Amino acid sequence: MITKAPADATTEDAPVARFDLRREGSRAVLALSGDWLTRTVAPVDADLRLIEADGGVRTVEIDLSGIGRLDTGGAWLIQRLVTAVEARGATVDMNHVPAPIASLLGEVEPATRPDEEAGRQGGGFRLLRPLELLGRAVSEAGQDFLQAMNILGATFHGPQMKVGRGRVLGMAAFVHQIDRVCVSAAPVILLISVIIGAIIAQQAAYQLRYFGAEMLVIDFVSVLVLRELGVLLTAILIAGRSGSAITAEIGAMKMREEVDALKVMGLNPIGVLVFPRLVALMIGMPLLTIASEFASLAGAIVVAWFYSDITPAAFLTRLRGFVDMPTVVIGVIKAPFMGLIIGIIAAVEGMAVKGSTESLGRHVTSAVVKSIFVVIVADGLFAMFYAAVVD
Fold first, then answer.
1. Which positions fall inside the STAS domain (predicted)?
2. At CB < 8 A and 24+ separation, what contacts does 186-190 make?
3. CATH of region 18-111, choose from 3.30.230.10, 3.40.50.720, 3.30.750.24, 3.40.50.2300
């Protein structure tokens, strides 16, 4: 073990910044202690730069439990180390980060990336900037995919851990998540579905009126709602409402070190935190999709009645004659997969939250955007599959 600190810094009148370094192959463990203030960090600056430049270090663990006082100077030094190591492709794990220190580190983080900021403002390699952004996007997408597969596998491993403890899924946690994911989201989904169904029916009737074929509005609305719109609208609303909530909950637990506490207790955090939410989403999505479809058709019936003089009885009679069971099943069968996608992306972003509220907000936004994008892409893939196999 190597201890880095000024030689004359052992008295209380001379507060110091120090760290103990332990190397285990490509893994470096730093235990920070003392006061990390602007006037006390100079002696450890050079040693930290050596660690930042050491290409043989692939994993760095930083223990902040021994820090006494910290100001922006000390926080910048610590965050500079994190930024430099991560820029080399290595991983950094920060342990025992009190909330005030985490907040301060988050504030100084942008200041540790001067080159990136200069590149954004326009340097001498502007032509390479799009390629750099493309490379970063591809790299992040690859990392997100690996993390998603890790969470998916750990999700199935989680209940196996609980089997040994006498239960597979906590019924209380499952019911709680069903209430939050499905029951609480139902009113807004029903309201928006009614409005969307009414708008589609009105626009379709307006166009078909020129051809004297207003009755075809029933065919148009039923196919669109039952095959595509019902599940897609529900998935987008659930991604924006429940997906963001899952990311915020797991991210807040990560910031409060509750995830680490579960590991210490011998529990799989993915199994305990993510598995009930995934099950709730996979069960709740089909139910909400069916409710959304009924609500959209109800809105269409009302508009067709008042706008095109198509009575509800005539609407339902033609609907029963036109819609077959495959049309209904094609829409609903996609719902569990949409719920699985939303849950995994929300969990990946929640687990990626670092120790600051800025990081939490960034990952919540990212979870919503990614979920909606992937859900739309998945819906397109389902449409291509059905066209090739079912139709």
1. 17-105
2. 186/288, 186/291, 188/237, 188/241, 189/233, 189/234, 189/237, 189/238, 189/288, 189/291, 189/292, 189/295, 190/291, 190/292, 190/295
3. 3.30.750.24
